[in-house]
Each structure stands twice: as C-alpha cells, then as structure tokens.
C-alpha cells in the first residue's frame, strides 16, 4: 500500500509539472528561508553559552537613581573586583576586563598595534577559552607576562614558537610571552588579540582606587551552590560601603549579556532578543505562506483528483486511508523541497555571513541537527497536507463519479481566507521593509553637523605625545593637511562622561550625565563645526586656553546661561571658562538626539588626533606625506589611520543589517505568496475557461474578461491591505520607539504599501487572465 | 431463492435551497442471488440514484434496505465502506480508471484495500487480466488504451475481489457496438458463473441480456418485465 502511495504521489508530481514546480519551489524557499533564520537565531542565542561555568558567571553592573529614573550601566570602578573577591564569600573568582585597546607590541624589529585587554589571572579559569600553549594558572604568574591569540602570534612571530620570547609593549615595557589562546569563536563577546595582567597595569601606575571612575567591566564567578538572589542581595551595597558613591550593584548574567544588553529604569530590557523574536515570527510566516500555497493549489485541483478519490472509495478505501495518502503526497513534496532547501541554504550561507557579520553553518555532522530537522520537515509536510487531505477525503463518491464535483462553497471561502492571510503577511512585510529603509535613510541623510570628507584620525602614541607640536607644524607646512586637532576620542564617539559637573545656577539635586570631549586647537576648522557664539579653543594662540571650554547647544540649553561666554564650569576639581558655543553635531548615535557635550581645553587629556587632508592633493599623496612625518616623530609605532566617514557609516551597520534582512525575507515571503497566487490564478482561469469562452462568443472584450478574472483576486488583496496596514502601523510604531531621531508614519508610506501590494498581485494574476482571455473559445466549448 | 438485495418503501429526496425533488419514491424491489437485473427508464427517473443506494454509496432518506440480509439503510459512511469492500464491484459508463496508475495497479487497488498479501494479489490480478484478455497491456496507463480495453480493465477491477454483486452503470454507453457487445457477453458470462448483476441502461439491446427489467419513471417502479424465467 505504501509503495502504491509513493508511486501515485510521484506520478502526480511528474504529470502536473507546473503545479509540482510551484509547490516544490514554494516549499523549498519557505523551508530554506526558515532554516536560514533559525540557524541565525541559534547562532545569536549561542553567544557565550559554551562556558562550562556559564550559570555562575556574571557581569557586575552599577545602578543609580538619577532624578527618579534608574540608570544601569556595565562600567565599574577598578577596586570593585578585588573587594568582591576578598570580602564576599559567595564570589569564587573575579576578573576585571579593560576593554580592547590598540597597543603597540614589538618583537625584535617588528611592531604592530594589537587589540589588547587588561585582565586578572582568574580570567583563564572562569571562561572556557582554551590555551594552546601555557597553563591556565601559570600564564600570569608574573606581571611581565603576555598572552597572545593564535592569529596575533602568526602576525608577530610567523611560524616561530613564541613562548618565552620577549615582546616590548608600547615601546616601554618588556614582556615575556607565556601563553597562546586559540582564536576566539565569533559567538563570544570577548574578542581581542593580546592580554596583559592587571598586576602589570598596576606596576605601570594605571591602577586607581577611585570608586567614582567607572572604567572597567568586572566579571565574577559565584560558587556553584550559591543562589544568585542571595549573592545579588549580599553584594548590592558594596560600593556604598566603600565610598560615597550612591550606586547599587546588580548581577547581569553572562548568558544574557548578548541578547539583553540594557535595563530600562532598572528592569532588564530586551535588546537583540526583540529582533530575534521578530525574525522567528517571520520564519513561521514564511513557512505558513509556503504551506498555504500547497493547500490552496491542492484543493483547487480537487476536481482533477476527485475521480481518483471516488474510485478509491468504491474500491474500499476508508477516509483514514485517503487522509494518509494525501498527507503522504504532501510529505513527498516536502521531503524533496527539504533537500533542495538545504542545498540553497548551503549556497547562501557565505553571503548571509558576509551580510550579517556572523559565522553560521549547516551542522550536517551533528546528530542534533537531524533530530530537529527531520521532525521539522515532517511537521511541515503534515501542516501542508492536512487541509487538502481532510478536504479531498471528504468528497462523496456517489457525486464525484457522476461528474458532479464542484468545490463546496465553504472550501472556496477557506481558500479565499488563506489568500487573504498570505497577502496580509505580505503587506505587513512590505510595510516593514519600507519603514525600516525610510528610517535608515532619514538618519543617514541627517546633517551630522561636521564634515567627514577627507577626515582621518590616529591614536596618539607615547612618542608623539611629547613631540606633537613640531609634528603638527611639520604636517601643516607640508601641505598634506589643512588642519589638525587633538581630541579625547575619535569624533564618532565619546569615551568619557560625568554627572559631577557643576556650574552657576545648577540645581544640586538634579543628576545629569554630560559627555566629555577635548581639543587643543582648530576643532571647528578640522571637523567643519559651526561656532555660533564666541570662538574655538586655540592653545597656540591663547595661552590661557588650557582651561577653556566649548559647549554644544544641548549643553547650553541644559545649563541655561543667558550670556554663556566667560561662565565658569567645574569638573574634575578644575575650573573651566566658556569661550564658545558650537552648533550641535552627531557624536554618538545618529538615531538619537544630540546630548549635552562639553569640549575641554588641553588641561583635559588627549588620546587621538584628527587631520583634515588637503583637498589640493590626492588622498594617497597626503597620506604618504603624513606617514613620512609620522615615522620621523613616532618611528616605533605603525601609521594606523582611520577614515571618519567609514566610522560614521559603521554606525548604521546594525540597522542596515536589520534592513537587509527584512528586505530579503520580505521579498522571499512575497515571492512565495505570488507563486501561490499565480498557481491559483492558473487553476481558476482553467476552471472558468468554459464561462470565459461563452462570454467571448457573446461579445466580451479581452479587457472585460481580464477585469472579470482579476477582480476577485484584487478584492482579496484589498481586504488583506485593510487588515495588514493597521497591524503594520502598530508594529512599526513600536519599532520606531527605539529611535528618538525618527520618521513619522504618515499616510504616504502606507499608500505606497497598498500600491506595491496591489501591483504585485495584479501582475501575478493578469498573465493568467490574459492567457485565458486570448484563448480560442471553440476549444473550450467543443467538449460539450 | 435467497434475496441479496431487498428494498422496502425506499425514498430519496434531493433538497436544494428552493426546491425539494423526490428522486426515489416507495421503491420495493427484491433481487435474488445470481440474478441479472436491468434497470431502465428515461433520464432523471432515478436509475443512478437507485444504483448508488444499492451500491452503498449513498443512504436512502426513508425506508429499509437489506443487503445480504443486513439492514443497512442507516449505516454510516464507514460501515458502508466496510460492507462494500469485497462484496460489490462497480462498472461505469466512463470506466473511471485512475489515470496515474497502470492497468495492473488499477485492478490491484481493491485487493490492496482488502489487505491481501502481495503474492496472492499478483495471482488474482494476473488471473483476471488474462481472463479479460488484457494481460499484454498490464503496464499501460489507461489513456494508452482503447475504450473497449479500458472497460475490460474496469470489469477486471470490479470482479478481481470476487464480489457477490456487480453494479454496472451504462457499461456500454461510451463504447462502439462491437466493444459494447463484448462487454455485455463478459457480464453474461460472469452472471452464468453465479455473480449477481444489476445494470442501469438505456439500451433495450443490452437489457435483453438481463433476466428481468425494472422500469423506473419519476422515481417510481412502473413495471417489471420478466424476460425469461430465472433458474437456480
């Protein structure tokens, strides 16, 4: 019996090639799309889940009440880790983590900048990052130790064994390579090239005991038997016990660090998980759309299958047998589609990884993959086959064998409902694509307030720090750059903020975070900023400018000075005098309003310098000249520069990925929907061929007939739009809440959604309508 | 002689939104084992409706129907399906073969649903195909055969499970006279071997093969002509 089912399923597939093609392609794309999304979701969920002690590992976060709102952040003071390790019995181990920073590592004559972190020795036992060389408890036995990743070893040593070799850090300190870490998998938040021990950092004088300086991430490992709630309650007030800082501590689980990356008013908020959930539903929708195609096309063909069903019934087939047979048929189609889907997915994965910055793969070799995939395919086969099976097996043999089969009214209505469902999904996805795209375009076309063209920045090396002035003079006189400015951080981000700033008239009860920035001179000239009051800072012109300060408009508004120039601002136990007001410019997220920013004079500190390259030479010429001068003053450090426009473009990366993902999967869903509609239209046209022919003989024009044939579908699509657009409006408004520099959802965008959806449906259906309208009426009528 | 089919006050109505049509009205017939009965009458008189009820494809709205001495008028689809299996064979005007199956597979179908083992199925199918003189075309699909050949396959399928009754609905309607004649002779032969045959037909010629002719008009039995005495 089973072979009979498979045989007839196969012959049916073969005989109705067009129908089978549509079904198989639809299901292939549906399954493929869903598999890709599910692999990606699995990848995002796997971040830092491979540590054996993952349930015991936490980031310690600060929490404080600012004007009635609870702020939470992951930066903590340097003394916190050791205090927790020493005083809290529930803490088994701790490691501070100074985030990766380019440091010069030099082996013999070869020096390269490597992303280097500062960690405590326990780091290696807390996290499961295998050491290829060296022992976990030995690598940081001495302060002058250096652990490199495999790739960093390759870059610095080539094929030489690095263990025991001397490497000079930042041209100053000799270190011995004591360990080599395997390269990090991409699904961990820890990504660096080199690690040095905290003991060295302390020895070099970078350690501070200031509880108000939140500059490192603190990781702790709890003892396995300790309850998280108990530990959290015990460490909550540690900072307050050791300092006057009014902050509490919370435990942020490492297992959640990737998907839940912030707190809203003290409550763990959904970060990336939101997007993952959204795409999970998109995967389900895509599968459903593909299943609906199968259902619609199968039941539309019921007239063709009716005879067979009748014969089987009078030959003794019970309903159960027939249901099994039809489920079996959908299973054959689904199994073929599932293999094709894996083929397509494996072809697409490299592009997907490239687009999304991920490293997903098809785990063919892992049994768990098949344990999930096979039931997944069977489930899809059952879903796709269920309705056709129930419908077809219910046909009454006495009627069908007399040729009296017409699809019962209710079934046709259900088919309509299914089409409406498909196009509702399609309309929502089209709307989502348009809204995401518009929002990104909106932010991208935002005036950043500074000119990114031909603007580069470099890290300030120790060598250059002492000889910056002659370097600057030489660069300017070379004609390679029109201006230079030293700053605290690249213009694309701020590295420091404070709620300790004060000024005349400030309400002492109000805590406000203000971003810090700095310059020596020519900030406005180099970055193309607009000074709207007063002047730029210029230490070379005004000796007193070392404690001058510029405010951006947002800061001015906050401080509410009537005459800002000459006002004094207190920060870091220093007094600063306002010399100018600069128009707001986008430093951090282009999707958010500009925050208050204070730009200090040279008494603050500098880590970076920006150069505006000269427009009169080529970029290559300018860079060559600057490099030559750079090498003269900072011979031991590599000339690693970054273009600001690239940095700025990177700010859109995550949203652009969402946009690309939405675009591709919406396109896929729409394509599958259209495939189904196309098939359905073909069957409808075939079914109505006699009616069309009679109408034609009676004088209907092709246009009349096309309207007749398409209007039913267009009505369905119109209903889909009525349902889909409000849903899309609601969902996309929620998404837009993530941005405070954002578009408003107007009628226009949804008008466009309606237009696109209708147009796509019309194009899909009209080809079939045309075919029917142009057919020779005699052919259809002769059979009667 | 034992009755194989007996209907008492059988009634069937077709109801649409506006009208109620009486398809069968107070039908009382008895068909004995081994009989060959033809049902005749003009289009729309209820012949096929009666055949469907006799064939357990449909239920009457009123009255009793005894099939093999069992009262089946109120049977569910599942019960009817069970009873049909192996007891009733159908032959249709339009052959009703499954296009996607070969001749052999079409004939095998009822045996599959009877869950017979493969070797037994093969034996029976080969036997019946040989008898119908169509064995040489067993691997062909229905569309590759002539009408007469298709009907022979259909008859093979109807008799392969050795049913007690064969119901034939205008079996020669789509055939030329030579092929029609051959089909009728086959049915006669089967009847001679003991199979009960109930045949709906328009053709007086075909009806001549039957022992008895039941004439229907507007859903009622109007006359019953006994052509020849039926002997056991």
Automatic annotation (TrEMBL), chain A:
**What InterPro entries does the annotation carry?**
ABC3_permease_C, MacB_PCD, Macrolide_Exporter_MacB
**What is the membrane topology noted in the UniProt record heading this document?**
Multi-pass membrane protein
The segment(s) forming the MacB-like periplasmic core domain are: 20-237
Instruction: Give the transmembrane ranges.
Output: 21-43, 278-297, 322-349, 369-396, 417-436, 661-684, 705-731, 743-765
Domain ABC3 transporter permease C-terminal intervals: 282-395, 665-777
Cite a single Pfam family from the UniProt record: MacB_PCD
* Annotated localization: Cell membrane
Span of the signal peptide: none
Q: This protein's superkingdom?
A: Bacteria
Is ATP-binding a UniProt keyword of this protein?
A: no
What are the protein's UniProt keywords? Cell membrane, Membrane, Transmembrane, Transmembrane helix
Q: Does the keyword Thylakoid apply?
A: no
Q: Provide the protein name.
A: ABC transporter permease
**Organism in which the protein naturally occurs:** Belliella filtrata
TrEMBL record, chain B:
SMART domains per the record? AAA
PROSITE patterns on file: ABC_TRANSPORTER_1, ABC_TRANSPORTER_2
Coiled-coil features, chain-numbered ranges: none
Q: Does the keyword Transferase apply?
A: no
Query: Which stretches make up the ABC transporter domain?
Result: 5-232
In terms of InterPro entries, this protein maps to: AAA+_ATPase (IPR003593), ABC_transporter-like_ATP-bd (IPR003439), ABC_transporter-like_CS (IPR017871), MacB-like_ATP-bd (IPR017911), P-loop_NTPase (IPR027417)
**Mind listing the UniProt keywords for this protein, alphabetically?**
ATP-binding, Nucleotide-binding, Translocase, Transport
Membrane-traversing stretches:
none
Pfam short name (any one): ABC_tran
* MF terms (GO), sorted A to Z: ATP binding
Which family, according to UniProt? Belongs to the ABC transporter superfamily.
Among PANTHER family, the record links this protein to: CELL DIVISION ATP-BINDING PROTEIN FTSE, LIPOPROTEIN-RELEASING SYSTEM ATP-BINDING PROTEIN LOLD
UniProt name for this protein: ABC transporter ATP-binding protein
């Amino acid at each position: 019996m089973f072979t009979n089912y498979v045989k007839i399923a196969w012959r049916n597939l073969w005989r109705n090639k067009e129908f089978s093609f549509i079904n198989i392609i639809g299901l292939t794309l549906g399954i493929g799309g869903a598999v890709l999304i599910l692999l990606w979701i699995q990848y995002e969920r796997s971040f830092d889940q491979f540590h054996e002690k993952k349930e015991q590992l936490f980031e310690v976060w600060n929490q404080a009440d600012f004007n009635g709102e609870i702020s939470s952040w992951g930066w903590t003071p340097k003394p916190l880790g050791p205090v927790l390790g020493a005083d809290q019995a529930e803490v088994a181990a701790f490691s501070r983590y100074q985030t990766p920073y380019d440091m010069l590592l030099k082996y013999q004559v070869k020096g390269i900048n490597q992303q280097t972190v500062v960690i405590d020795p326990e780091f290696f036992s807390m996290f499961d990052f295998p050491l290829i060389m060296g022992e976990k408890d030995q690598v940081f036995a001495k302060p002058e130790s250096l652990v490199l990743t495999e790739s960093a070893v390759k870059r610095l040593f080539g094929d030489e064994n690095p263990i025991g070799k001397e490497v000079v850090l930042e041209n100053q300190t000799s270190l011995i390579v004591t360990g080599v870490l395997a390269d990090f998998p991409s699904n961990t938040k820890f990504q660096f090239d080199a690690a040095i021990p905290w003991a060295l950092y302390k020895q070099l004088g970078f350690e501070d005991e200031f509880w108000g300086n939140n500059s490192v991430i603190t990781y702790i490992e709890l003892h396995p038997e300790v309850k998280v709630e108990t530990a959290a309650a015990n460490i909550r007030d540690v900072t307050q016990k050791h300092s006057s800082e009014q902050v509490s501590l919370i435990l942020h689980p490492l297992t959640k660090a990737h998907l839940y990356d912030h707190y809203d008013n003290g409550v763990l908020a959904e970060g990336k998980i939101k997007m993952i959930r959204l795409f999970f539903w998109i995967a389900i929708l895509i599968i459903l759309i593909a299943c609906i195609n199968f259902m619609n096309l199968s039941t539309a063909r019921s007239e063709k299958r009716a005879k067979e069903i009748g014969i089987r019934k009078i030959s003794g087939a019970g309903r159960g047998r027939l249901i099994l047979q039809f489920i079996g048929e959908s299973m054959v189609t689904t199994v073929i589609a599932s293999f094709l889907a894996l083929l397509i997915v494996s072809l697409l994965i490299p592009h997907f990884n490239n687009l999304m910055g991920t490293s997903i793969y098809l785990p063919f070799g892992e049994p768990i993959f098949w344990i999930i995939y096979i039931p997944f395919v069977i489930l899809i086969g059952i879903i796709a086959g269920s309705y056709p099976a129930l419908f077809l097996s219910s046909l009454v043999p006495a009627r069908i064998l007399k040729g009296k089969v017409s699809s019962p009214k209710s079934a046709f209505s259900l088919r309509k409902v299914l089409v409406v469902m498909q196009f509702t999904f399609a309309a929502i996805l089209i709307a989502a694509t348009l809204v995401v795209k518009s929002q990104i375009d909106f932010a991208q076309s935002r005036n950043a307030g500074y000119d990114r063209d031909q603007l580069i920045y470099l890290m300030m090396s120790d060598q250059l720090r002492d000889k910056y002035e002659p370097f600057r003079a030489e660069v300017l006189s070379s004609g390679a750059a029109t201006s230079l400015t030293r700053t605290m951080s690249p213009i694309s981000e701020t590295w420091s903020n404070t709620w300790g700033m004060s000024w005349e008239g400030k309400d002492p009860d109000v805590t406000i975070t203000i971003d810090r920035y700095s310059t020596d001179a020519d900030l406005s000239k180099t970055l193309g900023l607009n000074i709207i009051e007063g002047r730029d800072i210029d230490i070379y012109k005004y000796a007193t400018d070392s404690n001058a300060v510029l405010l951006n408009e947002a800061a001015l508004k906050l401080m509410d000075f009537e005459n800002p120039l000459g006002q004094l601002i207190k920060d870091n136990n220093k007094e600063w005098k306002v010399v100018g007001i600069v128009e707001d410019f986008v430093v951090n997220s282009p999707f958010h309003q500009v925050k208050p920013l204070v730009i200090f004079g040279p008494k603050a500190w500098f880590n970076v310098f920006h150069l505006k390259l000269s427009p009169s030479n080529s970029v290559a010429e300018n860079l060559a000249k600057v490099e030559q001068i750079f090498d003269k003053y900072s011979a031991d450090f590599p000339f690693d520069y970054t273009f600001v426009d690239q940095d700025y473009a990177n700010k859109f990366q995550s949203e652009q990925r969402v946009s690309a993902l939405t675009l591709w999967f919406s396109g896929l869903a729409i394509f599958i929907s259209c495939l189904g509609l196309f098939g359905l239209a073909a069957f409808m046209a075939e079914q109505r061929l006699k009616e069309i022919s009679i109408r034609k003989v009676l004088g209907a024009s092709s246009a009349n007939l096309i309207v007749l044939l398409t209007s039913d579908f267009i009505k369905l699509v119109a209903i889909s739009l009525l349902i889909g657009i409000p849903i899309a409006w609601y969902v996309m408004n929620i998404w837009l809440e993530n941005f405070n520099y954002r578009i408003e959802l107007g009628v226009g965008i949804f008008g466009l959604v309606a237009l696109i959806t209708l147009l796509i449906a019309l194009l899909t259906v009209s080809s079939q309508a045309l075919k029917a309208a142009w057919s020779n009426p005699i052919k259809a009528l002769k059979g009667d | 002689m034992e009755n194989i089919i007996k209907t008492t006050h059988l009634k069937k109505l077709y109801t649409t939104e506006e009208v109620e049509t009486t398809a069968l009205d107070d039908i009382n017939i008895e068909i004995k084992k081994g009989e060959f009965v033809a049902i005749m009458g003009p289009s729309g008189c209820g012949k096929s409706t009666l055949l469907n009820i006799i064939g357990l494809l449909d239920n009457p709205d009123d009255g009793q129907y005894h099939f093999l001495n069992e009262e089946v008028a109120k049977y569910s689809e599942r019960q009817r399906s069970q009873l049909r299996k192996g007891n009733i064979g159908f032959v249709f005007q339009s052959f009703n073969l499954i296009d996607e199956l070969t001749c052999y597979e079409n004939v095998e179908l009822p045996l599959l649903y009877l869950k017979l083992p493969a070797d037994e199925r093969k034996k029976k199918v080969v036997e019946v195909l040989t008898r119908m003189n169509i064995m040489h075309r067993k691997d062909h699909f229905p569309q590759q055969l002539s009408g007469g050949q298709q009907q022979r396959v259909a008859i093979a399928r109807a008799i392969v499970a050795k049913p007690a009754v064969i119901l034939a609905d205008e079996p020669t309607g789509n055939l030329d006279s030579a092929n029609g004649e051959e089909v009728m002779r086959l049915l006669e032969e089967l009847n001679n071997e003991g199979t009960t045959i109930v045949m709906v037909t328009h053709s007086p010629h075909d009806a001549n093969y039957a022992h008895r002719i039941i004439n229907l008009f507007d859903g009622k039995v109007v006359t019953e002509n006994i052509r020849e005495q039926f002997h056991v």
